[in-house]
From TrEMBL:
This is Integrin-like protein. One of its GO terms (molecular function) is hydrolase activity. Residues 1-28 form the signal peptide. It comes from Streptomyces collinus. The keyword Coiled coil does not apply. Residues 189-214, 444-474 are annotated as: Disordered.
Length: 474
C-alpha cells in the first residue's frame, strides 16, 4: 500500500506547467531499447568522466560512447562527447562536470536511443545551476544535441546530478526525471522531446524526506508493478541527520512526491525481474558502515525488494545480502563497500535477471565484483562468483585505490540476448579510471577474452584525474 507523507512543495511545483502545445505526430517506428544509439540491436556503452580536462579546463568533463559489436564494446568504434564537441550546446568550462550522470531512451521515437548527459556544475542563472544535454541517436551513432528543458532554474542547483528516463506518466512517450538540489529537488520533463520542437510541459517538487541541500543523489527506474509503465526509485539524504533515504514514486500521479513508498535506505539501486513473475524487483546498495549510516552494515549490504501489483510485495520478506551471507564470496570487513554499484540483467539467458554487486573498497579499495543469479524463487547465492583484477583472464592487477566495482552494468553488447558485465574502476592509474568488459555465457560472465581500456584509448585526456567510469549505462 502507498504511504501518504507530509511534503514541503513549492506552490507551483506540483502542477504540470502550461507549456503543452500541439499534439505530437504519431509514432512512425517502435522506440529503440535504451543505449542502442545506432539501432543495430546491440547496447552501446556510455562512460562518464566528469573529472576530465577539456581544452585546459579542469573537471570540465567528457563522455565516451563505445559501440557494441559481436565481440562486445569495441573501443575502436566510438564517439567522444564534450561541451566543445561540434553541435553541442554550451562550452567546456572548469568544474562543469559534464558526464556526472547518464540516462537513455528513444525520446523522439525515431527508432534510435538518445543519450542524456548531466552537467551539474554548469553555471546558468547562478553558480552550479546545472544542465542536461540530449545527444541524438541515428543509424551512424550519436550526432547533434539540444539542451533538456529546464523549468525551475531559479529554484534548484546542480540540475542533472541524477537522471532516469522512461514513460513515467503512461502516455506512450518517454519522459525524463532529473535530480537536483535546492527547493525543487526532482523534476519531470514530459515527452515526447524532439530535436527542434517546443516543450510538452513538466513539473517539479521538493520533499521533506530528503534535505534540499543534498537533494536527489541517484535515480533508477523499472516496471515494478507490471502495469507497463515504470516507477522511479529516488535516493537522497534525510534532512534531520543526513542518513540515506530511498523511496519509490509513481510519477503518473500529478503530486508524485505526496505518495511515496518507503524502501530500504541506500545510495544506488537497479530494477529488474529476478524471479520472472512480470514484476520488476529492486536491488538497493548501501555501501556504508553502520557508524556512517543508520541502515548501513559491516562492509556494506544490498537489499532486494521483490515487486508486486502494488509496488513492493508486502507478502515477501526482504532479502538482505552481505559478504557474510552464506554463498556470497568473501567476508564482510570494514570499508569493503559491498553495494557501491548494483545492476540487474540476464547474464546466462535463462529469463531471470541476475545481480552484479560492486565492492569498491575490497582489499584497501582495490575492489571486486560479485555476480549472483536469479531464479523462479528469487535471487540465489548458489553459484555466486567474484571477480577482481587478479582473476585469471581479467586484464591488469589489483592495486590499492583502483576502486574496481565502483560502478557495474549488466547489458547485452553483443546481441546474443545475454547481459555482459561491464565494470569501472575510477581510481585506476591514480584517478585516470578504466573499464573492463566480460562476455556473458550460459554459465555466467567469463574472464576469458575480457577486455579493458582507459580514457586515453577513447580520446579523453588523462590530465588531472578524469575518473573515467564514474558513470555508466544506468
Amino acid at each position: 500500500m502507498r504511504t501518504r507523507i507530509t511534503t514541503a512543495v513549492l506552490a507551483a511545483a506540483l502542477t504540470p506547467l502550461a507549456l503543452t502545445l500541439s499534439a505530437p505526430a504519431a509514432h512512425a517506428v517502435p522506440a529503440a531499447a535504451p543505449y542502442d544509439f545506432n539501432g543495430d540491436g546491440r547496447t552501446d556503452l556510455a562512460i562518464g568522466a566528469p573529472g576530465a580536462t577539456v581544452a585546459g579546463q579542469a573537471k570540465a568533463g567528457a563522455v565516451s560512447v563505445v559501440y557494441g559489436s559481436t565481440s562486445g564494446p569495441k573501443s575502436s568504434t566510438r564517439t567522444l562527447l564534450t561541451q566543445n564537441t561540434a553541435g553541442m550546446p554550451g562550452a567546456a568550462e572548469a568544474d562543469d562536470a559534464f558526464g556526472s550522470a547518464l540516462a537513455s531512451a528513444d525520446l523522439n521515437t525515431d527508432g534510435y536511443a538518445d543519450l542524456l548527459v548531466g552537467t551539474p556544475g554548469e553555471d546558468g542563472s547562478d553558480t552550479n545551476d546545472g544542465t542536461v544535454t540530449i545527444v541524438w541517436g541515428s543509424a551512424s551513432g550519436l550526432s547533434g544535441a539540444r539542451t533538456l528543458f529546464s523549468f525551475f532554474s531559479t529554484d534548484y542547483d546542480r540540475y542533472g546530478r541524477a537522471l532516469a528516463a522512461g514513460d513515467f506518466d503512461g502516455d506512450g512517450d518517454a519522459d525524463v526525471a532529473v535530480g537536483s538540489t535546492g527547493p525543487v529537488t526532482l523534476s519531470l520533463v514530459n515527452g515526447p522531446i524532439t530535436k527542434t520542437g517546443p516543450s510538452n510541459g513538466g513539473s517539479g517538487s521538493g520533499n521533506d524526506w530528503w534535505s534540499s541541500s543534498n537533494g536527489i543523489t541517484h535515480l533508477s527506474s523499472g516496471d515494478v508493478t507490471g502495469d507497463g509503465h515504470p516507477r522511479v526509485v529516488l535516493h537522497g539524504r534525510a534532512a534531520h541527520n543526513g542518513a540515506a533515504t530511498t523511496s519509490l514514486a509513481d510519477m503518473k500521479i500529478s503530486n508524485y512526491t505526496d505518495w511515496l513508498q518507503k524502501l530500504p535506505a541506500g545510495f544506488v539501486s537497479a530494477v529488474g525481474d529476478i524471479d520472472g513473475d512480470g514484476h520488476g524487483d529492486i536491488a538497493v546498495g548501501n555501501d556504508r558502515e553502520a557508524s556512517a549510516d543508520p541502515e548501513g552494515a559491516l562492509g556494506g549490504k544490498v537489499t532486494v525488494v521483490y515487486g508486486g501489483p502494488d509496488g513492493p510485495d508486502s507478502g515477501r520478506a526482504l532479502l538482505v545480502l552481505t559478504q557474510d551471507t552464506a554463498g556470497v564470496p568473501g567476508a564482510a570487513e570494514q570499508g569493503d563497500r559491498f553495494g557501491s554499484g548494483v545492476s540487474l540483467g540476464d547474464v546466462n539467458g535463462d529469463g531471470y535477471a541476475d545481480l552484479a554487486v560492486g565492492t569498491a573498497g575490497e582489499n584497501a579499495s582495490a575492489g571486486a565484483v560479485t555476480v549472483l543469479y536469479g531464479s523462479a524463487s528469487g535471487l540465489t547465492t548458489k553459484g555466486a562468483t567474484a571477480y577482481t583484477q587478479n582473476t585469471a583472464g581479467v586484464p591488469g592487477a589489483s592495486e590499492q585505490g583502483d576502486r574496481f566495482g565502483e560502478r557495474v552494468t549488466l547489458t547485452d553488447h553483443t546481441g546474443d540476448r545475454r547481459a555482459d558485465l561491464t565494470v569501472s574502476a575510477p581510481g585506476e592509474n591514480a584517478g585516470d579510471g578504466a573499464i573492463w568488459s566480460l562476455r556473458a555465457t550460459a554459465t555466467g560472465p567469463t574472464a576469458s577474452g575480457s577486455t579493458s581500456f582507459g580514457p586515453g584509448t577513447t580520446g579523453i585526456s588523462t590530465a588531472g584525474a578524469p575518473a573515467y567510469g564514474t558513470a555508466l549505462n544506468s
